[in-house]
């Protein structure tokens, strides 16, 4: 439970889930399943997520999850008013369990089911202090909202969080300068900013070179709007940090650093998402990538007891952005090494998988002539060797045996695939 709390306090993991685990057998068995798989993964040093039914802990986790499913199924016809909360909490635990097992399709399926249930209950997340609709636990709804936002980076359609509540959440100083009341408000405002940013960057990067050129004018207009929203958030949060940071607890300061990290990454990602990956203009962004890498270092330096699994986004998405987006391969290598140095999971993000994908992308570029060939990242020059287009619209599919993965990507206007072994051997 302390690991699940991650970078921010959470009544869900520190209180609600423990209480319901004692009172509800379905929740109890779901928690035990997650705990068993997590314990074994941590014992092995958090390798790439993979299920092994020859492993006693994995079989035990599967048995426990099936018991939870069975208990929920027998109560489906019940009119118990608490059934909704029990079902949603089990659903949330199943999402995390499937991510830990490396079963991404199943995990996102559970997440979609939970979000659909919330929508059927009439719930709409506008900010953490106001959940409209049925009396579902606020922190449980907030947890689904956070995971919903993260899923947008993986091509899922985020739908639980809506609107931009910055003006509703902020308060004004005596001089009229907007600021946030507390860390909870700042974090919720960031979620509402990141949701459309993730949707936009994910959709633009899925386009071929030809599609990008044809839609450039409309995409540029939306890019400008999203950049303005991030800038508005940055001004408000920078004022909050300048005036309140020293009053925060050590954990809240770390949370503030993580918010600043994602604000910085969002701004950079937005600015480069419409650039072709062989555009020399990207060279001017290398100092920005290095600053983002430095921000990651500041966060990890303040995190001596690093969790192996947590729900919150932390350092993996920014590191992956550096490891795949920077034109300076030396900076990319540092980001990949940082991903490998702390093997852990943040929601759907796996640091080991992120490092493998980033390495394979560099190999694709070497084959295309963007960098000299190498067996791994060692030996790459500090920048691409020529103007050959680098891959766009990269997506990853894990094979059923969880031994191989397939990178699908645009190179120019052609769709290509590259299969590779997940263990890198």
Describe what you observe in this structure:
The protein has 425 residues and is mostly helical. The chain has a domain at 163-274. It is 58% helix and 10% strand. It is built from 16 helices and ten strands. The protein has helices at residues 2-5, 11-23, 25-43, 56-74, 83-100, 104-120, 138-151, 166-169, 183-205, 209-214, 216-244, 250-272, 286-301, 316-325, 329-341, 351-368; strands at 124-127, 130-132, 170-172, 178-180, 309-310, 345-346, 349-350, 392-398, 404-411, 414-421. The chain has a three-stranded mixed sheet. A hairpin with a 2-residue loop joins β1 and β2. α3 packs antiparallel against α4 (56-74). The longest helix has 29 residues, at 216-244. The two termini are 34 Å apart. Mean pLDDT is 85; it is low at 127-131.
Give a summary of the structure in a few sentences.
This protein has 425 residues and is mostly helical. It has a domain at 163-274. The protein has helices at residues 2-5, 11-23, 25-43, 56-74, 83-100, 104-120, 138-151, 166-169, 183-205, 209-214, 216-244, 250-272, 286-301, 316-325, 329-341, 351-368, and strands spanning 124-127, 130-132, 170-172, 178-180, 309-310, 345-346, 349-350, 392-398, 404-411, 414-421.
């Amino acid at each position: 439970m302390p690991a699940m709390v991650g970078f921010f306090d959470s009544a869900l993991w520190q209180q609600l889930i423990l209480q319901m685990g004692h009172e509800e057998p379905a929740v109890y068995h779901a928690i035990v399943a997650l705990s068993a798989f997590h314990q074994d993964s941590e014992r092995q040093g958090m390798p790439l997520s993979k299920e092994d039914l020859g492993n006693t802990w994995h079989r035990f986790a599967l048995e426990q999850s099936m018991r939870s499913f069975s208990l929920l199924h027998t109560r489906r016809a019940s009119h118990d008013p608490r059934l909704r909360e029990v079902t949603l909490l089990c659903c949330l635990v199943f999402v995390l369990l499937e991510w830990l097992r490396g079963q991404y399709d199943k995990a996102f399926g559970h997440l979609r089911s939970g979000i659909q249930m919330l929508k059927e209950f009439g719930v709409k997340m506008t900010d953490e202090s106001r959940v409209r609709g049925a009396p579902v636990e606020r922190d449980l709804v907030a947890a689904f909202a956070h995971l919903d936002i993260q899923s947008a980076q993986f091509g899922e359609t985020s739908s639980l969080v809506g609107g931009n509540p910055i003006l509703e959440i902020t308060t004004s100083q005596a001089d009229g300068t907007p600021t946030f009341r507390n860390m909870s408000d700042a974090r919720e405002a960031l979620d509402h900013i990141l949701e459309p940013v993730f949707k936009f960057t994910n959709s633009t990067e899925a386009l071929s070179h030809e599609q990008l050129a044809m839609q450039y004018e409309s995409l540029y207009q939306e890019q400008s709007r999203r950049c303005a929203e991030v800038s508005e958030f940055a001004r408000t949060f920078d004022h909050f940090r300048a005036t309140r940071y020293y009053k925060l607890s050590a954990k809240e300061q770390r949370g503030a650093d993580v918010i600043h990290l994602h604000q910085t990454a969002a701004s950079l990602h937005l600015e480069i998402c419409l650039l072709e990956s062989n555009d020399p203009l990207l060279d001017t962004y290398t100092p920005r990538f290095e600053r983002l890498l430095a921000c990651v270092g500041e966060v990890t330096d303040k995190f001596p007891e690093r969790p192996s699994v947590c729900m919150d986004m932390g350092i993996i998405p920014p590191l992956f952005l550096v490891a795949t987006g920077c034109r300076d391969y030396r900076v990319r290598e540092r980001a990949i090494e940082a991903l490998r140095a702390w093997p852990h999971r943040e929601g759907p993000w796996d640091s080991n998988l992120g490092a493998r994908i980033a390495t394979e992308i560099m190999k694709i570029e070497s084959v295309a002539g963007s960098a000299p060939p190498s067996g791994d990242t060692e030996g790459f020059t500090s920048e691409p060797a020529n103007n050959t287009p680098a891959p766009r619209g990269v997506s990853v599919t894990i094979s059923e045996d969880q031994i191989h993965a397939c990178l699908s990507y645009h190179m120019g206007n052609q769709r290509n695939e590259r299969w590779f072994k997940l263990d890198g051997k």
